[in-house]
Amino acid sequence: MAKIELTDVRKVYPGNVEAVKGVSLSIPDGSFVVLVGPSGCGKSTLLRMVAGLESISSGTVEIGERVVNELEPAERDIAMVFQNYALYPHMSVRGNLQYGLKNRKMASDEIARRVDAAAKMLEIGPLLDRKPGQLSGGQRQRVAMGRALVREPAAFLFDEPLSNLDAKLRVQMRAEIRRLQRRLGTTSLYVTHDQLEAMTLADKLVVLNSGRIEQVGSPMDVYEKPASLFVATFIGSPAMNLLPVGEGGVPGVSASDHLLSPGGRPQILGVRPEHMRLVAETDATQPGDAIFELTVNGVEVVGAESFVYGGLPQGGPEVAVRVAGYSHLEPGTQVRAATSHDAFHRFDRESGRRIVVA
Ligand SMILES: Nc1ncnc2c1ncn2[C@@H]1O[C@H](COP(=O)(O)OP(=O)(O)OP(=O)(O)O)[C@@H](O)[C@H]1O
Ligand SMILES: [Mg+2]
């Protein structure tokens, strides 16, 4: 077991592509840390620098108590699981599991013990004599996990390991990886662009944007107190509604002092779809409620819930409202939506940073 410590890590690829722009991050021993961010933000680059598959332009990477910048991947005591599994097609499952251990000249009874333990844990015992080509995608993913497990490393590194699986299997494997990690207590750094996967797996969530950390925190912290507009819109689906606020409040939303920009600083208000509710003309609203007059553009029925999308009279960004169950609202219908004042998030329009209201 080991903690991982990144200090001001940078990566500049040839051609002056600055992929990682100074990342400092502590991954405590035994924790599950998830790096999430859009395509191209530098997730794989960062992970590969920890693994030793990519050189580090500046800064330090420590695994355990050692600075590993100059160590070969094999000397770093980590195991990596990739999206494309990277199994040897001509070897059996057993062969794939044993390969790395044999290379290290491990005693054969120890190899057998580790392979058996991993096969049992992952329930792939019956598949040991098959070739990767004779396995389903989910089974291949399990073998790839097994190959990481048998090494009994100080840390696991995962790069989008589930993105080749169908939606249902992905959810199942996600839960399995988490259970396995809890059981083994192995420090893990996991990369994904899928915010839902990130939210459900992480002890600690790291949101990356263009090579920089936007926010670090527990999934709930990040969801409830997004530090920037970027995080607010990246985490959560449908995304948080954003409304520009002028001197007169938000056009089309019943104004109140609360909605006005303090000191004239332009801000953007955010409210999550689940913190809004449709109300009838006659419904009593709470004193602090903001009321939105919306024209329905469309409805998305998810099953247990629906999302009603509507426009404000003066135009501007579309607003999503979550409703329980099925919604039968037709496009063009006029509706009112209410939201309580304390559900609003406030962001500085220029910097995009969260405004903390005392
Ligand atoms: N070998 C390379 N040479 C030059 N630029 C590279 C190289 N590898 C990656 N990049 C660039 O570095 C940036 C970060 O790439 P990286 O693969 O780390 O992104 P990512 O967050 O993993 O994206 P994805 O979610 O699509 O996998 C991108 O702009 C990419 O084009
Ligand atoms: Mg990547």
From TrEMBL:
Listed name of the protein: Sn-glycerol-3-phosphate import ATP-binding protein UgpC
UniProt superkingdom: Bacteria
Domain named ABC transporter: residues: 4-235
Signal peptide as annotated in the record: none
Species: Jiella mangrovi
SUPFAM superfamilies noted in UniProt: MOP-like (SSF50331), P-loop containing nucleoside triphosphate hydrolases (SSF52540)
Annotated family: Belongs to the ABC transporter superfamily.
One Gene Ontology MF term: ATP binding
Keywords assigned: ATP-binding, Cell inner membrane, Cell membrane, Membrane, Nucleotide-binding, Sugar transport, Translocase, Transport
Keyword Membrane: yes
PANTHER family: MALTODEXTRIN IMPORT ATP-BINDING PROTEIN MSMX, SN-GLYCEROL-3-PHOSPHATE IMPORT ATP-BINDING PROTEIN UGPC
SMART domains in the cross-refs: AAA
